[in-house]
Amino acid sequence: MTFGIGVTLFVSLYLVVILTIGYFARRARPDETLGEFYLAGRTLSGPILLLTLYATQYSGNSLLGYPGEAYRMGFAWIMSVGFMMAIVVAYLLFAPQLYAQAKRFHFVTPGDWLDHRFGSPSLSLIANTLLILGIGNYLLAQLMAMGHVIAGLTDQAVPYWAGVIVLTLVIIVYETMGGMRAVAWTDAMQGIMLLLGIAGIIIAAVPGSAHLRETTEWILSQQPERVVVPDWSLCATWVSSVLLIGFSGAVYPHAIQRIYAAESARTLRRSLSVMIFMPLVTTFPMFLIGILSIRRFTNLGGVEADQVMPMLLRQWSSESTWMYAMAILVVVGTVAAIMSTADSVLLSISSILAKDFVGKRLLVGASEARLTRAGKVLSWAVMLVLVPVALAPRITLWGLIELKMEILAQVSPLFLLGLTWKRLTTRAAFAGMIAGTLVAGGLFLGGYRMVAGLHAGVIGWCVNLTLSVALSLIWTGESSHQRKMTHPPLGG
Amino acid sequence: MSRPPREPVRYGWIWIVYVLLYAASVPWYLPAGTIPEIWLGLPSWALLSLLSTVGIALFTVLVIRSFWDDTDPT
Fold first, then answer.
1. Which of A150, A189, A395, A460 is positioned for an S-S bond with A436, CB 3.0–4.6 A?
2. What is the average per-residue pLDDT within A12-33?
3. Domain span holding position A242
4. What CATH number did the domain enclosing A372 receive?
């Protein structure tokens, strides 16, 4: 069986399985409340929570974008292990409080927390818009990754556009059938597939130290800039990436909703205790794949480098039956990683649009069942907008991630300071967020994506934090923490 | 009167340790452009960075186990 046919067969089988899971999740859903549809009734137990956190956090970007970036940057890309850990470290700052308050006040969306804490519809509107823009971008990256992986692995037998459209349809069908329950259950299976796929990569490709040494010496002789000690500018980018990914990744709306959906604090703690090790078994092997590919495939540039993994898999598949099987395992794991992130992001966008935009502004007082139905329609609408954009990609996968992070970073102080510092006032938080967004957006759009090695988003984030703290100390008259809620949270 | 539940954010020293571990993971302390020794197949600075991240992971487990109380809200 050719590799292309094998990929098509096993991916099709996988799609049938997850659609079946979506069907059973629909049957298990007792009602149409927002808490049930978007948070699975707040009953995510240990293994499911861990696997859904894992499958959501590690995406097509991790499996396609990261080897490509290691290929482009060289050994300094080992920074990816630390910055993925930084997301879990950032959770330790605010997740205990956020979890406790979400249980107490029945939050469904990140906007519910913002309303509760700041009581400002304008602040919530801007923050929700930034969240939607940020993760909308992320969803777009997943759609592109679907097309790349399917087209790349079937030798274009299944074209890019077909990969995007077919996988999008599968996601939206099981998501609108079963909501978070379907997403979490499929994520659990996708998380297992991802782990198996990575095990396949480790068995098939991760070299012993002698082989790795040989490769490193070859790179040192041919392209020494990828091996020598990085300069100060790259070290600054390293630190900047830890801050940017750590604080932005921690406020992914879909990750925050998994904190809300945890069955208990113990479940959440245990899941995060395992999650902290995941970069070592996920990001690090991807880094090694990128490094090994420097010698294996020379002179790939720009978007081409994102094809490193598909090219490698096709090579393995022709080496032996065992390697063929490993390659198929990796392909299904990769597709699983992409889809599990895309479905979670889509569900989160749908919840924010339905509850925070429609429920609090257009259909005020509507029943939860009606808002849930509106959310399903909005999921389809979002995909109808994004799929055409994904069909004409003009940016690398990593470029899309950076853009997303620059935006999300400006919302993180609302959670970070809002949950840990009672003196933060609404006006100060609002001013900080606007200023940070203007600085980050202005620099990014003005072509200054990096300034002295720092990301535009990190510079904006520093302005944001500084203003939020300074203005809270100056404008001491208001204690927003004491305010009454203007929008009592819906859902249970 | 019961004490408030323990949370990592209340302990300043935890965050100092994190800053130190992250500082150790970035090779700012070595002269830029130096050709490194190769340890276990990796440039020495990359291996040190990897070991620092292992330290971050182990420390995080300690923090979660010892400084984050389980108490669920009633």
1. A460
2. 86
3. 3-399
4. 1.20.1730.10
